[in-house]
Here is the input.
Amino acid sequence: MTEGERVIPTMGINNCGGKCVIRVHMKDGKILRLSTETAEEAGDAVPLTACARGLQYHKTFLGEDRLLYPMRRTGKRGEGKFRRISWEEAVDTIASEWIRIRDTYGPASRYVPYATGVSGLLSGREFAKRLLALDGGFLGYYNSYSSACIGPVTELMYGTRQCGNPPESWQDSRLIILWAHNPLETKFDAETMHALRCAKEKGVPIISVDPRRNETAAALDAEWIPVRPATDSALLDAMAYVILKEGLEDRAFLDRCCLGFDGTHLPEGVPETESVEAYLMGRKDGVPKTPEWASQITGVPPETIASLAVRYATARPAALIQGYGAQRHAYGEQSARGGILLACMTGNVGVWGGWACGAGDCTQHPWPSFPSVPNPLSCRIPSFMWTDAVDHGETLTALDGVRGAEKLSVGIKMILNIAGNCLINQHGDINRTAEILRDESKCEFIVVSDLFMTATAKFADILLPGVSMFECDNISLPWKYGEFVGFSNACIPPLGESRQEYDWLSEVAGRLGLGDAFTEGHTWDGWLQDRYAQLCLREPELPPYDELKRTGLYRYKKGPRAVALEAECRDPAAHPFPTPSGKIELYSPRVAKTEYKWPFPAIPRYVEPPEGPQDELARRYPLQLIGWHTLRRCHSVHDNNPNLEKLDPQRLWMNPADAAPRGIADGDEVLVFNGRGRVRIPVRVTERIMRGVVALSQGAWYRPDKYGTDTGGCINTLTSLAVTPYSRGNTQHTILVEVRRTVAENNGDVL
Here is the structure.
């Protein structure tokens, strides 16, 4: 500390699970540096220590590339050509278009897309929905890009997503399997890696099942079992077969708690051949789901599959912990369901040190509520399908995932995109998405509020400068696990003419005659205090608002040990599971009675995916491409910070066995391509990616050259707009590509 230096506590509010403690060292109104909490300061609690990303927040958010003034588009959408305008002109234009579109097409033509650039208690995105709801309503959405499959199927089978124990329970596991789970880089939260390290120190064996030996596996020195992308459920099926064949299943648990494992526990009238057991043993299709069967699909040796199954079944309690990677594939629901099946077969549900698989949520304290207003319109679409709603919304029906109505009455005509990069960068098939948005006869008006000229911002009609975590107060909450409430303190005034979205939305509300109803007399800070007061009524141990603001963090007192679903597993008759049957529904009567656009079975089982390793398209594009969350970014946040590039330069990972026949050496520039797009990127040749698979970290900013080839390394140049059959989740990890060494490029072609 230097003379005159003061420290302001704050906390990140973007969609990073770390939620680290950030201390802003200020002098003469300027930020000198950031520091964070140490393990010694945290004491017995899990330290909320910032990684390199957290300690670079000021260099990411306060750089020279900030948007500082409201602007109006002058060129074609996507060109990034704008002129500066006044806030009065911006608000007048928004209000005018708002009214025109509402009166011309109806309230269902308006949409606020999924976006997580601000994930604090209060966000401009939610305030935009509040105003739209007061003005007749809007087209809503359900599910998310993150957990669209794993969340809904956990509810389908358990009746709840609250099926996880506190991560500290893993120290009492006898085996941990991390399945498509990379918490070190993904930053699920502060608890997960801490708990895994503690388990490792206690001697708990840890296995990583993933096409890539990720940084989590490397840090924990975990045993690595590579598996082909989109084939996880085949591997899980074969493990279930081995457990059943060897008589290692917990038959008492299955009989007591589960619906549909065998023929005697199916709903009345359902043939025995529809049971899980009949499927595994091949009694219906004539194909037992043996390790040899799965090996041909997954690329995992049969002996490895058999060994993994036996180790998991006999090392009770054991924790098979699923990440979100495997469920972002075509039929991603099935990998999540297959994990739940294994947890049930081995009796690892409802026990300390075990793990129920699936979403694994474990919320012990309520979150503060947002001051929302009920949407008068009940109609909702899957979050990933907004492009369809823009392009051909009038054709979408309940069979496409429309809820609250049989079909959409109108396509999306107005988009309010606030603090998010999902209109372009983080959405699938960028070239097709951009084509849809360029057509102004479809979506007629787009407002974007952001900090930088992102790929999404370039498609705005009105582009507005927002504020960063250093320029506004907010309350920060745990993302996955963690029992605390944090406060994000403003440290500096807004840069340039930047404004919180709440401020200009309040002015739009005034133009609509809804000013009083929208604000209820509250400023932004007033809403924060109001919502915190409501939380304190439910959580009386919390400190006063001013104290939380001063300290920046409150950790809840440690409560009694919680084991999810313990009572239900012990006596489901007295404590039924919150499902229609009161049991864990391995067989789903709801699924069996529902029509789906694509095949979706009533039980967990492998379904061959499009663009999987067995697809005919693999003859043309023989490599499977996957993405991962890198240490240097949180989604697309931080990609404009050159200091963080050193952590993980944007490279295509490729196995030597795939590189050699293509004449590719480490460091070469390559072209990654398929029928949807092209990316030019340097390659990293490494044994840490399995043969037949290449990988590109997600979140890099889309930077097309004059030929339309992306030079930024944005994986969504190559992904698709396809969705999964049940939850209509994104399938952005199911991609077939080819890779060639770049010699020269002319008109977009490799020479």
Remarks:
- Residues 150-362+564-592 form a domain with the Dimethylsulfoxide Reductase; domain 2 fold (CATH 3.40.228.10).
